[in-house]
Amino acid sequence: MGSRGLGGRPSVAMRVQLASAETADSLADYLRRCDCSVSRLDPFTVGASGPRGHVSQRLELEGRLRVWRVMYPDEQFLVLT
What are φ and ψ of residue 55, in 5° steps? Predict the structure, then answer.
């Protein structure tokens, strides 16, 4: 099991809030296919860390989100951390 942050939540490099649970599922599936560590923090929020071994997991995730945005241009999301 992964490390825990404040409030017992999984420790993640980034939290992303989406407009629907279905969109959150789509992003979580995509990030898992990219070898990212993913957790659902609530129905609309995905927590993620980049693939192990990358120096900057946040930078890696930002790149993955740019690609996902091109794949799904109509989907809106907000990076919380």
Answer: -65, -45
Q: How many CB atoms lie within 10 A of CB 49?
A: 22
pLDDT in tens, the chain (81 residues): 344 444 555 578 899 999 999 999 999 999 999 999 999 999 999 999 988 777 788 899 999 999 999 999 999 999 997
List helix spans (H) across the chain.
Answer: 21-33, 57-71
Does pTM surpass 0.70?
yes
Task: Count how many domains the chain has.
Answer: 1
Cα atoms in the 13 Å half-sphere on the side-chain side of 74: 1
Structural domain includes residue 1: no
Q: Which domain holds residue 54?
A: 6-79
* Residues in Cβ contact with 36 at an 8 Å cutoff, skipping those fewer than 6 apart: 48, 49, 50, 51, 60, 61, 64
